[in-house]
Amino acid sequence: MTRAIPAIDRKPPTLQKEEPLNEQVYQRLKWALTVGDYAPGDTLSIRKIAAELDISMMPVREALKRLVSERALVSSANRSFRVDRLAPKRISDLFFVRSCLEGIATDLASPLLTVAQIDRLEELAEQMDQDVDKGDMRSYVCRNYSFHFTIYTASMNAELVAIIESLWMQTGPYLRSGVSRTGMSADWRRKHVQIAEAIRARDTGLARELIELDINWGTKVFGSEIN
User: Fold this and answer.
1) 65-77 confidence digits (pLDDT tens)
2) CA atoms within 13 A on the CB side of 57
């Protein structure tokens, strides 16, 4: 399966006439949620989004309704849309499910990743470490996405990748805010380098274990907030 990993430092492309507007709006909003551009509790205005994109409100409304159906947003009686403020237990559970599924994807992908892809993983890991030093959390989470989905898309299991992607969309606002709030230990910062090294050594078991540990950061952080 070939998959385009979103560019990190590029603004979204101009809306294309040949692709349905509601799908393009959906993809933009999905990406914004995944990388935490919207925080828990943020409201998404149909009128404002439509004005920014210079389109009618209908495709924006359709995209937002789709995101509600995928549990990335919630809607209220007055037809407003927002990022829900999830209970710590639910956030912790989402990260736990992610760790299980992403471990499976890593198990499938590790023998299939090419040398060039592994080189890219190591490059991304180094850049992510630099992002942390600079305090640039948006670049960090964007590269983090690219790192992980370079692995998962190599699993050749489109259904598994789609489920993982949906979970990333739900946890994105919490990952961004959690990383910014709690910071990252030196041990956790090394995880991505270690994952790339394990995959290069074709140590599938270790790569899976490290991915699960990486994702379970969220399970522990938000689990500790459960009353």
Assistant:
1) 999 999 999 998 7
2) 7
